[in-house]
Amino acid sequence: MKNVNSKEVSVLVSGPFNEPFDYVLEDKNTNLSIGQIVLVPFGKRKIVGIIIGDGTKTIPETKLKTVLQVYDLEPIPKPSIELMNFLASWYCVFKGLVLKMILSPIEAITSPDFEKVYESNFLNKNEIKEIDKIKITKKRKLVLDFLLNLDIGKSQNDIIKQTGVSKAILKDMTKKKLVQEKKVYKTLNLDSHFLKNSKENKKNYDFLNLEQKFAVDRINDSIIKTKSDCFLLDGVPGSGKTETYFETVRTCLDQGRQSLILLPEIVLTPDWEKRFFQKFSFAPLVWNSEITKKKKKKIWLSALNGTAGVIVGARSALMIPISNLGLIIVDEEHEQAFKQEENIRYNARDMAIYRSSRSSAPIVLASATPSLETFQNAKSGKYIHLTLPKRATGATLPHIKLIDLSTHPAGKGKWLSPLLVCKIESKLNNKEQSLLFLNRRGYAPLSICNSCGDKIKCVNCDTWLVEHRSKNILVCHHCGYSRTFENVCKKCGVEGQIKACGPGVERIEEEIKETFPQARLIVLSSDTMNNHKILNQTVEKIKNNKVDIVIGTQMIAKGHDFPNLKLVGIVDSDVGLSGGDLRASERTFQVLQQVSGRSGRHSKKEEDKGVVLIQTYDSKNPIINAIAKNNRNEFFDKELKSRQHANMPPYGRLASIILSSRLERKLETFSTELLKVAPFFKNVKIFGPAPAPIYFLRGRFRRRFLIKSDKNVNIQDVILNWTRKINTPNHIKLTIDIDPFSFM
What we know:
Elements: E1 3-4, E2 8-13, E3 21-24, E4 32-33, E5 37-42, E6 45-54, E7 69-70, H1 78-90, H2 95-102, H3 107-110, E8 114-120, H4 125-131, H5 138-148, E9 154-155, H6 156-163, H7 167-175, E10 179-185, H8 192-197, H9 210-224, E11 230-235, H10 241-254, E12 258-262, H11 269-280, E13 285-287, H12 293-305, E14 310-313, E15 325-331, H13 348-358, E16 363-367, H14 372-379, E17 384-388, E18 399-404, H15 418-429, E19 433-437, E20 446-449, E21 466-468, E22 473-475, E23 482-484, E24 498-501, H16 505-515, E25 521-524, H17 532-543, E26 549-552, E27 565-570, H18 584-596, E28 611-616, H19 622-628, H20 632-646, E29 652-661, H21 664-676, E30 684-697, E31 700-710, H22 715-723, E32 733-738
Parallel strand pairs: 11-16, 11-17, 12-14, 12-15, 13-14, 15-16, 18-28, 19-26, 19-27, 25-26, 27-28
Antiparallel strand pairs: 1-4, 2-3, 2-6, 5-6, 5-7, 8-9, 8-10, 20-24, 21-22, 22-23, 29-31, 29-32, 30-31
Helix pairs in contact: 1-2, 1-13, 9-10, 18-19
């Protein structure tokens, strides 16, 4: 990292700022680098920032405020600073707010945990023998022998544990200058024992098939040569993508570099962690919203000082300042969860690709159903396409059938076709497991009054309340508002006329209990699996064949391998097909393909192969038919042609401007004023302002602009120049969403 040679320094502070501020160093002899973390005065506050260069010399030194503290930490690495600059520019957000994410948790900097570390003052045994003349005790000699051949010091706790000495002895040895005592930040160093032994197992992956070995060798070559290649690891469900990229993580560790693995949801990590530990005999550092702030502090510091070998986490883990990054994995790269939709809107997958390019590290995008953008980039040769066409277990792909509900309807008040019920019964008789998939939480998505027709809505949003009968409550899945369910219409006052419309997973559970009362049943949704411990226990029960029928939402659709699961029933495949946005059909295809892949993952005989039954009212739909024929590429090609014809991503570009306010009339007035100053460009089209599909959300009214352009247009400049032409009132919130995923 470049050194700063001036007494005056330029500091980017954490907060809504794009430009740095000049400060002066109290000690002009201080040798600092770009990325050094400092504490500076800012108005009446003290705020953390990083040095990004020499001062501008535009303000007299006498008027500059002094840097209050230079933190004794490694500087933020250059690739992290470059990521900050690029992300802020691409998504039209403040650099200082991106920096705030990089420096989180701030307590790791301002109040880190310290530990005492001791180093020997003697270089070899002969020197220790010399001091025998002063008759040091056996215990003191034991400490010196323990520290002698270590490159770095050992913590007080480690020395006491290994030698059995007391704190008093170490204190006395420091006083007599037999050892040096230092205070260092507490970090986590869980990988060191693996790094010493991993080379014994290098390239020992005979258990992989030929396609997996080819992929491993190709990625390993880029790791060793520090090439920032982007790979699409494209394999059918059950093809062993995780085992494949685990071998590349091993190579990265052998090279003494750090790995970052991004998973779309924290619910995937427990089973994944177990597989990782079985593979490597140490636990990765897990970063997500559930871990304590104390643990986050240690992980953050470990990443910065290079002692953390493998970090796995959700999208926010991308912002950790990893000092020696050698490999990035984005698992289930197609998942919408990688796009942050609140506050700073960014796509962690796309930014991970940029970060890999700045870190001279390859990146692996792994998926059974790649996003269309990724698939097109691989098809065009921009990414290196590695395919795993066979299941790693040697099992055949499942047999997929459509159930046309028009000709084989469910009974009155039921949701499962007799054909599906019959197949479930067959699997129960064979002591095999079944999975019923419905991507709707709760009991029913809509409650309506039979007397007056009133639909029960959220008080904060333009959305229906979802009935959760197990808890006797109605819940808004957008803002979290809930109230007790009462069978009285608040509009007309009639009792006993509230009717549940449509099924959720609880309703399917009710039907299964009635049809198969002896079956062992479990429901997997974010309502029932609300912590890692419960999810872990449930997954183990299913794997150990202690469950007959699983009912689940999309949290069961990916990342799980249940050996005895032979039937997948998709209750309502039509959900999502009419989503009304660009990616509705793509998302529907992906989730249905993923959940279909849970069936028969270990069935090697034709007569034992897995079965997938898809209930639909639209049996001629091209998405449903592509899944039934197991022809993913046919669907992708058709969808890409449709996108190309409409000049939509990946061939064109989209951006949104979302305006929101608690004051509806003032929102409409401002929207009209913003439209009046809209720019006119040959290859740019502006649609709106239109009420958002969910017009009233979390107590705010919302209107949207959609901007569509050719791919070569700098859409960010267009939007920024436009929105800067008008002052945005305090009661209006203006949000820019580049490459939007949600159009709600």
